[in-house]
Amino acid sequence: MNEFFVKNRENLLEKLSVGEMAIFFSGSAPQSTADSHYDFRPDKNFYYLTGTTRETFILVLTKLEEKTESVLFIEKPDYDIEKWVGRKLTIEQTKEISGIDDIKYLTDFDNWLTRSIYSTKFDKMYLDLPRMKYNGEMTPAMLFAQDAKKNFPELDIKSVHKFMSELRMIKSDFEVEEIKKALDLTQLGLESVMKNLKPGDYEYVVESEFRYAIRKNGADTNAFPTIAASGGNAVILHYVENDQIMNDGDLILMDLGAQYNQYASDITRTYPINGKYSDRQKTLYNIVLKANEEVIKMMKPGLAFSELNKKCSEVLSEELIKIGLIKEAKELSKYYYHGVSHFMGLDVHDLGFRDAKLEPGMIFTVEPGLYVAEENIGIRIEDDILITEEGHVNLSKEIIKSVEDIEAFMAK
User: Lowest CB count within 10 Å: 46, 47, 141, 402, which one?
Assistant: First the structure.
């Protein structure tokens, strides 16, 4: 497995020029209460380059005329601390996981970095500096950038985000297999949900049923917080309260996924809580399903990413005009108000360029939806699609989605 991480580092080093270095931080879990922390999730770029999932680790990649180097800084094992919080990775264990031979302790990082910059010809430092909001949370890399600018004013500091996006948006065969395993677990979780779904339960019962099934069968955790939105709650795209009673005759929209070896899956299915779709629900559901299938059908190398949502909107608007819900296409935004696709991989919303053309190795979601608030109906159907040389493969094709298949399964 470490060959994968070795290759990823080599690919990134090829993008660096002589005299440049890149530094990555694994991160740490934020404090949740006075005496506990949230569950730790490693920075996914750091994992992609090292395979390690421990807090506070630091990776440095360097490129000079004569050589490239990878140095990983880890916590020093301390038996007295380990008695309280668990075992630390040893140097040998870290070498085995990452394929990095040069392992040092975190206590050496400041002096090592200072000596390296002072005694060599480094003039540029790349840091992982993504920012989704102007006043967003400061990451370890951003905090380090502030200190680095003060301590090493001679260095040009740049973001490595573009390079990592170029690498991560094309998945290797290894990554595809990991995502397939995550989807297999998601399928087991959804089948467990369908077997046990019934009116009168709370939405959090569905959330718990899914998590139990995937964890029991080997998932790391949920890829993201489960959306279990019944009735009118399903018109809220990121509804996560999951605290309402599920009513007879309503639908439940579930946007969820298992994570396996850090790789995500992202699936949405919309089920009848009592096992049978009403005629109206079936009509709207089949419109969403048609959009899902038509978008998937067109996916192939060379297609512009923007064409996916264009096609989705065309199908939805045409069908809603037919049934009289809207009179013209410009009214669609009342009932469909999000994009149909995003990159998926280590992150649920994975790195990638939205102005890109589809290429073999890319994985996208396809997730059209309709949200009819006045009827307390929200429907979304989502699959995970791999682009291939020949066209595409629906990685989630075994997760049933037709009205007939769902009703038959729930009637067992």
Answer: 402
Q: Which of 222, 243, 323, 329 is nearest to 280 (CA)?
A: 323
Q: State residue 83's pLDDT score.
A: 77
Beta strands in 97-247 (DSSP E): 102-105, 124-127, 156-159, 221-222, 227-230
Give the mean pLDDT of 218-239.
98
Residue 239 near residue 285, CB atoms below 8 Å: no
32 by Cβ neighbours in 10 Å (0-12 / 13-18 / 19+) ranks as: exposed
Examine the pLDDT at 168 and tell me if it is beyond 90: yes
Q: Is the dihedral of CA 332, 333, 337, 338 positive or negative?
A: positive
Taking the model in full, what pTM does it have?
0.96
Contact in structure between 19 and 121 (CB atoms under 8 Å)? yes
Average pLDDT of the chain? 96
Categorize the per-residue pLDDT at 1 as very low, low, confident or very high, splitting at 50, 70 and 90: low
Q: What is the DSSP letter of 195?
A: H
How is residue 354 written in tokens? 């939205």
Q: Which of 168, 185, 218 is the last residue of a domain?
A: 168
Whether 173 contacts 382, CB under 8 Å:
no
Structure tokens at 84: 């309280």
With 80 as the cut, is the pLDDT of residue 387 above it? yes
The CB-based long-range contact list for 322-326 (8 Å cut-off, 24+ gap) reads: 323/283, 323/287, 325/372
Q: Hey, how many other C-beta atoms are within 10 angstroms of the C-beta on 96?
A: 14
Pairing of strands 156-159, 31-33: unpaired
Contacts with 260 (C-beta within 8 Å, 6 or more apart), sequence order: 178, 179, 181, 182, 185, 218, 219, 220
Go through 239-260 and write b for each residue having 16 or more CB atoms within 10 A of its CB, e for each that does not.
beebebebeeebbbbbbbbbbb
User: Do 161 and 240 fall within a single domain?
Assistant: no
Domain that holds residue 133: 2-168
Mean pLDDT along residues 347-365: 96
Shared domain for 350 and 371, answered yes or no, is yes
